[in-house]
UniProtKB/TrEMBL annotation:
Belongs to the purine/pyrimidine phosphoribosyltransferase family. Pathway: Purine metabolism; IMP biosynthesis via salvage pathway; IMP from hypoxanthine: step 1/1. GO terms for molecular function: guanine phosphoribosyltransferase activity; hypoxanthine phosphoribosyltransferase activity; magnesium ion binding; nucleotide binding. InterPro entries: HGPRT, Hxn_phspho_trans, PRTase-like, PRTase_dom. Pfam families: Pribosyltran. GO terms for cellular component: cytosol. It is an enzyme of class 2 (transferase). The lineage of its organism: Bacteria, Pseudomonadati, Thermodesulfobacteriota, Desulfovibrionia, Desulfovibrionales. This is Hypoxanthine phosphoribosyltransferase. It catalyses: IMP + diphosphate = hypoxanthine + 5-phospho-alpha-D-ribose 1-diphosphate; GMP + diphosphate = guanine + 5-phospho-alpha-D-ribose 1-diphosphate. GO terms for biological process: GMP salvage; guanine salvage; hypoxanthine metabolic process; IMP salvage; purine ribonucleoside salvage.
């Protein structure tokens, strides 16, 4: 793998702590469900939910399929693992690794809104605008990028590189 370091493990930890404070303030005293989008967001979700000052926050998981083993969204999104909790009347914080084309996230936001969530907001580790085709609001962004294929800290290429502690731009495989 040839890659360029973009965000070190220390950069990520500092930004996640800041995001935890922002989110804690935004949802003070409100019912909150944090939803992890598997698999990519699992490291970020774990760190972020521990940084949010809430003992009563519900945690749940979804899995969407749109990329397969490629690097370009198929635009057809499927929910392959659904929530176990009821979001009706609750604030929902979707925790996503990277917002790229926007298709997967738009699909999920529509599903959650359709299920009666009181509000749905997004916390994304990386808000990447290069291939954005569908506008989606990112309320809490860890880092912003214009371009590049990124791996590490949960982000993968064909299921590889997820366990790297930092985020890299993948230059060649």
């Amino acid at each position: 793998m040839t890659a360029k370091l973009l965000f070190s493990a220390e950069d990520i930890a500092a930004r996640v702590a800041e995001m935890g404070e922002e989110i804690s303030a935004a949802y003070a005293g409100e019912p909150l469900v944090a939803v992890c989008v598997l698999k990519g967001a699992v490291h970020f979700f774990s760190d972020l939910t521990r940084a949010i000052s809430r003992e009563d926050m519900e945690l749940d998981f979804v899995r969407l399929a749109s990329y397969g083993l490629g690097t370009v969204s198929s635009r057809e999104v499927k929910l392959t693992k659904d929530l176990e909790c009821d979001v009706r009347g609750k604030h929902v914080l979707v925790v996503e690794d990277v917002v790229d084309s926007g298709h997967s996230l738009r699909f999920l936001l529509d599903v959650l809104t359709g299920r009666g969530a009181r509000s749905v907001r997004v916390a994304a580790l990386v808000n990447k605008t290069e291939r954005r085709e569908v506008e989606v609001p990112v309320a809490f962004a860890g880092f912003s990028l214009d371009s590049g294929f990124i791996v590490g800290y949960g982000l993968d290429h064909a299921e590889r590189y997820r366990s790297l502690p930092s985020i890299y731009e993948l230059l060649s495989v």
